[in-house]
Amino acid sequence: MKLGLFENLAPLDFTKKVNLEKQKEAIKFVRSKFGKEYPNIIDGKSSITEKKTNSINPANPQEIIGIFQKAGKQEAEHAIESAAKAFETWKHVPAERRAKYLLDAAKICRKRRFEINAWMISETGKNYAEADADTCEGIDFLEFYAREAIRYSEEQPLTPYPGEKLSYFYIPLGVGLCIPPWNFPWAIMLGITTAAIVAGNTVVMKPSSDSPMMARLLSDILHEAGLPKGVLNFLVASGAEAGDYMVEHPKTRFITFTGSMEVGLRINELASKKSDGQIWIKRVIAEMGGKDSIIVDSEAKIDDAVKGVTTSAFGFQGQKCSACSRAIVDKKVYNEFVAKLKISVEALQSGEPKENYYSGPVINAAAERSILEYIEIGKKEGKLLTGGYKIQELPGYFIKPTVFIDLDPMARLSQEEIFGPLLAVIKADNYDHALQIANNTQYGLTGAVYSMNRAKLDRARKEFHVGNLYLNRKCTGAIVDVHPFGGFNMSGTDSKAGSRDYLMLFLQGKSVSELITNITKGGNMPTEKKPAAKKAAPKKPAAKKAAPKKPAAKKTAPKKAAPKKAAPKKVAKKAVAKKTTAKKTVAKKAAPKKAAAKKAAPKKAAKK
After folding, report:
1. pLDDT tens profile 515-536
2. Which residues does the annotation mark as catalytic?
3. H or E stretch including 326?
């Protein structure tokens, strides 16, 4: 399979009327399908449960996006067994064919791009640009991971060793449990699932109950692309009942999770305990959020910093693990920054996502309640600059973009992940102090520095301890294979989504070494001549190994001297001493070459 170089898909420009109108038409189309029921898909078959999960529109909770199932242990067992059965054949499917399923799915996604956006806008409250960026990233994952799977399928280079045919290659792990989040309901869900699949694993995908429609879309698209049944099992289920059961299941080989630190640590703890019948150590790939900071230095361009902080803090209502939740500002420019920040944030308009307002709702009632509680805490810990209330005029979970200033670096608003439209502003004495504050949380996901001082930026590269550091730009918006994404400390297990390392997390290396012999039975066994041709270079070390055989050397003395081309003369002199005629001596000059050839044959085989 010949593929061109990977290229990122460009986001749509919604200032262009044609794109705007197409998106509005797609929203009308998906809204006409609201309220339908969707079964789980296990082993390619529909599965219905008594209990249900309603996916609602967070901008208007009275609207039901779709009715989904709520599986328990019985369905979870069926899904794991289905994936285990499918793995026995899927693991042998060549990487190029596995990659083609992803590439075909990418083509379908491009055709259905506006529809995918529309479901996301409706189910999670993203505006047009945020939804389209999410869709682009998902398509990028399909294209990029397809190419990576082919690259990883090639035999890996090894140092040659005489006499052995060597091979090192990667094989899949087994059955995986994929638990994606609701905040990037397309990109992350698609990325963790298809990376596992294209590497040769089979999966049970348990989506968030806040965004099951997006996962159902992916399931439909992959099966439309021809993915065999059982390779992907779509299971909307109870986290407490089915989720824990699948994490602990002895046939679960790995778990990939994106979500809160608390849930991620619980999964890691459960997975670390051996279940009856389990024969491996389970692998956990977790991305668990952050408390991300942007440093605004005294030598920064303040207008650029204000724009970057505003976008990073309030894009998609701050519901990103990469969102800026802390602005750490040098005291020399603090007042100027705060004054301009207030104007910038208050210019953000809140409203219905389907109408493409910049700021939409938070995801659900529980999130709204938690954020409002943090606002009350903020009123005690700092000074409210703007926002700080629920927007009563709108029917959904809308909270006004909120900023608190003059906060202590160790205040709760400065330390705890809030996951909403709330920004904490902290004053720093100087750049040293700013870096110290930036590193004072238990997380280490993203961060940014605004400064026109090269030495300070270079210091940040070394001292600002985050997985994704951005200089003089916002701290959100990672792009596949441009900004490999993943953090340190309690932000996760140091994985890097969208990187050339990522597929390794779903693979294991196998080394095979075969002694070269003259075996011919059973098909394509290695022959003597072919490996010798390939491994001509390492013959010199092999010759050194033959040196200690001094007794044997007496019988094959002509061979030792053969490289100098003088040895035959010595043999000739000995021959002359034994024989009386010149003709016999000449004949014996040729004889050592034949004898050497016969005695050297076994040593040639040894060198291979």
Report:
1. 998 765 655 544 444 444 444 4
2. 287, 321
3. strand 324-330
